[in-house]
Amino acid sequence: MSDSTDRQWLRRSVGVLQQEAARSADTHLLRLSLARFPGIDFYFKDEASHPSGSLKHRLARSLYLYALCNGRLAQGQAVVDASSGSTAISEAWFARLLGLPFSAVMPACTAPAKIQAVRALGGRCELLTDPAAVPAHAAAMAAAGACHLDQFGMAERATDWRGNNNIAESIIAQMSLEPHPQPTWIVCGAGTGGTSATIGRYLRYRGLATRLCVAEPSGAAFAVGWQTRSRDARASSCTLIEGIGRASVEPSFLFEVVDKVIEVDDAQSVAATWLLTELLGNRYGGSSGTNLIACLQLAEAMCERGESGSIVSLLCDRGERYAETLFDVDWLAQRGIDPRAELARLRERVGPGPHC
Ligand SMILES: *Cc1c(COP(=O)(O)O)cnc(C)c1O
Questions:
Q1: What's the topology of domain 22-50+161-349?
Q2: What is the pTM (predicted TM-score) of this model?
Q3: What spacing in Å lies between the alpha carbon of 191 and ligand 1's midpoint?
């Protein structure tokens, strides 16, 4: 292929991504008032409402743009990434838009609905029984000529952290007319670490007093590494919550921009995921529940100190993806979790409705 046809395809592909971004609306910032926290306003940014169903829609758009503009992705080239599901779905969505063949390397235990979603978008799934073998398999496919989008390696640099409608800029703009427009806390999870890196950098760039809290499954690598700023940290336990709770410190984890880490047990995350359905009328995924628990803990500490203010967090993906897992009582029981008692305690903790 000649240089000029290459550049023509590149220009067209960048244009396709820009058109998609221009067609997209921003995601809603949903407000919640909880009876037990009269002075505190809660906001949840509904990242499930992206066309590909999660906050990974933003990341996938950025990763393709980054690969294209770095000259790493050419017409007809195979695209690959290692993913626990949400990223794969968004990457498959953009691969279809760009007319590129896409393969996702994922653990075989990934929620079935996510695997189906990748396939329905025309992507291939390479399912590995050993989750630890996933990165090496993706790297091998890249060595054989595929473009490795590399969400874990590239997340923090592929996103324009100063602005360009990144998630942080969008949150701060959407808060502008609220009673407490500068949030006391923003709470998010760490999967690739891209979201926390973008928010943490943006808060510093804008000179805001808002602090950033990472909500993390108990014992996972961000929490362990953040305490000591150690990049060799390993998780001391594994989690049922997909998308977050990594086994080791990922390249895009930026510990320095995170002010606090709150660790949440899976049983609490699951119960909070169920509670979100009651509070918001839609099902969201497990990491959204983890975020909610961290928000409640921060709000309780604010109340004790007599502070008022706002706390912003994210609804990371759609709950439909977990119908056979986190929303299935038998599946949960097999893993030693019965969320009903915890759900009752959580209802007490937020107080009676209405919540908006
Ligand atoms: C990726 C992911 C996260 C964490 O976001 P990062 O920006 O990758 O750290 C949280 N929840 C879900 C469902 C995800 O897929």
A1: Rossmann fold (3.40.50)
A2: 0.96
A3: 5
